[in-house]
Specification:
This protein is α+β, with helices and mostly antiparallel strands and 600 residues long. The protein is built from 22 helices and 15 strands. The termini are far apart. It binds iron/sulfur cluster (2 copies). One iron/sulfur cluster binds next to α17.
Length: 600
């Protein structure tokens, strides 16, 4: 078997592994279950998250140590990761091959001629690492493994979900806010291969740039055995995926080890050996002065942009109260220093409540996870800790159920709080519309419930009734105008006009002008001509911030469509001090902070 065939088999294998791991990241009761699969293994092999999070936090999360073998092998063999392993590289290679199939040989060789634009990825790497040094890890925006994971998990898999029915949009299928952007980016990356083979790898990939810097001292590399002039066949360059000029002065950092040159050379001049190419080598793409300035400027831009992102009130006390992070998330600064925007947490959440942030987390937090209780299928499920188990960088730290619920050893600390629910009295049905509703109180999963109700009786906006006759609990009125409500639902009562302290008599049945009450009216109120009013029993919700854990069940189930009448905001969240400013709740660890006194 030739080396190119071996490379293809390896690429196919890792592509399948990648696809499979994306599938099993979907928590479910079907075939593709999370349990037991090393879902993050491929992401852990990627050295860029390890490097960026280490720069940002000064520590290395142990599972990311898988990146060390990848780095060591690259130091010895070159960019094997790009040629043999990277699933996005494989997809780029396949799509490039398909869209360029009809090209003639000279055109193909011409397309693989190296150019200074290949230095752009080094500039991007400098920008991203500079931002990471200042605590903001943005590498995941362009790092191929998080990028592909995000695209497949959030853009492609929902499309292939049989419950989605390819666009029929059944309720159970997953959906993600702005998924079309991920789809579009993915399509654009594949389509760009029509311009140049492996366009993304050549010009944009920061991981490729990182490997390119590592291979500088690799003892084994592609090269020519002799410096003889080759003539003009350029067969090696027809399929050179790296655009690294194997026929002449080889650009070592750009070689992605596709090994096509080695297999194509009709004279066998090119080999993979423990020596430099006899025809000469150039360590990096020919930047020229302009390219070097670009790299420098990008690094500086990264250093400037990172603090700029935090200006404008997105951090600290002025941050967006709508930014609810998944349970177990680190405080915002440490979260942004770890999250690589891979989307694994979004994919695994069975409630589909974790959504990619677009504006809510500011520029620094684009595509990081945020909980959207309107889009999800439920609030954060009480007995679920999946997101923290799957996060490859521990931006969401793995919790136990006991810790999440504040039980056992964690009883003294209390449950993990995502925020606090607030009733919007201008939209709440019992508060604003005089309509009975008890949904939020009923669905609150906390025990004892964090939502209590206070019963009030409000006169219905309807004409007063006049007693025509009374027999026990049967009251006949002179006329009953249609009120558009089911008076026999148990929520409505009769009360004599001018007697607000008298207990209203609940209506059990309504037929024409005859009403059946739960209890008879007082003797004095049965005289014909006595005026009665219809009242509605309302149970107005109140949230106890000391009990509310911000799970969002109430917000999700609230029947007020659009902007819900009860909404969770990040106040009193467990993960950070500045958010804990409202409730007189049990301390959750972390620095104490001033608390506002709630009005009695
Ligand atoms: S813990 Fe909550 S947010 Fe995390 S995966 Fe489970 S339901 Fe989703
Ligand atoms: S928080 Fe979510 S998107 Fe960020 S690294 Fe963890 S799993 Fe990936």
């Amino acid at each position: 078997m030739g080396i190119v065939a071996a490379r293809r088999i390896s690429q196919g294998f890792f592509l399948l592994v990648f696809g499979w791991l994306c599938l099993v990241a979907t928590l479910g009761d079907g075939l593709f279950e999370l349990r037991g699969w090393p879902v993050n293994w491929l992401l852990s092999l990627d050295p860029l998250p390890a490097l960026a999070t280490a720069l940002a936090t000064g520590s290395l999360y142990a599972p990311l140590l898988w990146a060390v073998p990848a780095v060591v092998l690259t130091l010895f063999l070159g960019r094997f990761f790009c040629g043999f392993l990277c699933p996005l590289g494989t997809l780029n290679q396949i799509s490039g091959f398909l869209v360029r199939k009809g090209l003639g040989r000279p055109a193909r060789a011409e397309d693989n001629r190296p150019g200074p634009a290949q230095g752009l990825k080094y500039a991007l790497l400098a920008l991203l690492l500079a931002a990471a040094v200042l605590g903001n890890v943005q590498t995941g925006l362009l790092d191929p493994l998080p990028l592909l994971t995000r695209s497949v998990d959030l853009g492609l898999l929902p499309l292939l979900d049989p419950r989605q029915g390819l666009g029929l949009g059944q309720a159970e299928a997953r959906h993600y806010d702005g998924a079309w952007v991920f789809g579009l980016v993915f399509i654009a990356i594949l389509a760009a291969n029509a311009l140049r083979p492996r366009f993304f790898c050549r010009y944009l990939c920061p991981l490729g740039a990182f490997f390119g810097l590592l291979v500088r001292f690799a003892p084994w590399r592609i090269g020519k055995a002799t410096s003889d002039d080759c003539g003009a066949c350029r067969r090696c360059e027809e399929y050179c995926e790296g655009g690294c000029r194997p026929s002449g002065k080889l650009i070592a950092s750009e070689c992605v080890l596709c090994l096509n040159c080695l297999a194509r050379c009709p004279t066998g001049r090119i080999g993979f050996a423990g020596r430099a190419s006899a025809a000469g080598e150039q360590p990096l793409p020919d930047f020229s002065r302009r390219g070097a300035v670009l790299v420098l400027a990008s690094g500086t831009a990264g250093l400037v942009a990172a603090p700029l992102w935090s200006v404008g009130g997105v951090a600290g006390a002025g941050r967006n109260p709508g930014l609810i992070r998944p349970p177990g998330s680190l405080d915002e600064a440490r979260f942004l220093a770890r999250c690589i925007r891979c989307g694994q947490c979004m994919r695994v959440c069975p409630a589909n409540v974790i959504q990619p942030a677009f504006t809510v987390a500011g520029a620094a937090g684009i595509w990081t996870p945020t909980l959207d209780f309107r889009l999800g299928r439920a609030g954060c499920l009480q007995n679920c800790i999946a997101c923290g188990q799957l996060c490859p960088t521990a931006a969401i730290r793995p919790l136990t159920l006991e810790e999440k619920l504040g039980q056992g050893d964690f009883a003294a600390v209390g449950p993990i709080r995502l925020g606090t629910a607030f009733v919007d009295r201008t939209r709440c049905l019992p508060w604003a519309m005089g309509r009975p509703c008890l949904v939020c109180q009923e669905v609150c999963p906390v025990s004892p419930k964090a939502i209590s109700v206070r019963e009030v009786f409000e006169p219905l906006r309807a004409p007063r009734l006049t007693v025509a006759g009374v027999r026990g609990t049967e009251v006949t009125v002179a006329a009953l105008a249609p009120v558009g409500r089911n008076l026999a639902s148990g929520d409505f009562s009769l009360r004599p006009v001018g007697a607000p302290t008298q207990p209203p008599r609940r209506i059990l049945g309504a037929s024409g002008v005859q009403l059946t009450l739960a209890a008879p009216l007082a003797e004095a109120d049965t005289v014909p001509g006595r005026e009665l009013e219809l009242v509605v029993r309302l149970e107005q919700p109140h949230v106890d911030p000391a009990r509310c854990i911000g799970c969002g069940m109430c917000e999700h189930e609230c029947p007020v469509s659009g902007l819900r009448a009860i909404r969770v905001s990040s106040e009193n969240e467990s993960r950070s001090g500045p958010g804990r400013m409202v409730a007189d709740a049990a301390p959750q660890g972390g620095a104490p902070c001033l608390r506002k006194q709630l009005p009695a």
